[in-house]
């Protein structure tokens, strides 16, 4: 046996009902290796990762760690074997404090005479955080639910590293991060690699996979189709291997002009503030405009999107729809929908989809008034037709429209979350990271679709942490920093460059 091989799967298979998620997968990992794992949505990456981490049980085949049979029945078995995972979904308990989440299961170490020493748990948690994040501020006694999705992922990484893993699996963790946290994560990965830890790095951001990893495994339809060296590989090579056809290297819109209707403002935000989130924000969105909002983690851009849609309370300022002569004040999301506004949240699983409802119910929910016939009667047949159209529109991989969303792969859940708004045909779309977790083929399609919507005079606020996306799609780009909007507005005609934009972010 190769001494360097730390871990192997041999002929591992897994089916979920009729869906064959993994088909005789042979995978091996060396010590101190960073392995990228890429493939289209639903190709089996997370299933493989979760089998290795003891979260999902395999149907057949075997796994070896250091040459010995490894057959985890639960995640604790993986911990004991020094395998840790940060899953796509949240792995934390929302109602517990950060400290309790970090030290869950280790309370015994802090118990004296039956009493848990809260102060000591908090102190230990602070030290764990400091070791990785240095000066990043977390109040360890606060409930984790008060923190952003990105912050929660940071806490999960710290928790995973605390187990001193020999194998660390990151399932689309970096894809959820803004630039500053991505850099932080990559520094951590390189550091632990040098200490001999092997990393399985799942991502849809191919350029980053090439940059960060040593080797890459490509999956398609539950099988490994190739294992390659990351050196000397281009993003285009990999995209082609992944989807099995050539994809243009630049899949953003091709025009270089800001081409919206400058005379027609459809949404005017003036001096809008929300305590602790953003301050004194003013901007206008025009008919047919893609207005991009970018910034580092915690800059307030996601909260701004939420507030416009009516999901976050504002303290001062106004949101005005000039075309309708309507002010939105203390408004609910229902009011926003009625005014033709759509909102795709960043946190897919807790806000974007109803996991325990069917694909059909998820897609039709915000459009029932449109599906309804004049008699107020909703025809089940019309609902089915509507949902099936949505599934086709974004090639959602699902057994059928009655499948619950919890059984879909992460990227396919994201497609459900987005397509329900595309199907409603709103005038204004606020989209927070719409392409997060979707594969390159669908990404290209979504960009085309956004461009089409723009040409149909729809207006889009595109919130994104990906600079290339901001530059590639925006008519204008606004940057937020620490809750404030920068004065500088980047205009498409001037061909803004990444370095220039970063200067305003940091
Ligand atoms: N709990 C489940 N119940 C039913 N089907 C499932 C379940 N988990 C995964 N699947 C199916 O298994 C297949 C592989 O899914 P998996 O999540 O492994 O894909 P993935 O490559 O990680 O996709 P993504 O890039 O979208 O995250 C998909 O068709 C998915 O619908």
TrEMBL record:
SMART domains: AAA (SM00382). InterPro entries: AAA+_ATPase, ABC_carbohydrate_import_ATPase, ABC_transporter-like_ATP-bd, ABC_transporter-like_CS, P-loop_NTPase. Transmembrane segments: none annotated. Residues 7-246, 260-505 form the ABC transporter domain. PROSITE patterns: ABC_TRANSPORTER_1, ABC_TRANSPORTER_2. Keywords: ATP-binding, Nucleotide-binding, Repeat, Transport. CDD domains: ABC_Carb_Monos_I, ABC_Carb_Monos_II. GO terms for molecular function: ATP binding; ATP hydrolysis activity. This is Ribose import ATP-binding protein RbsA.
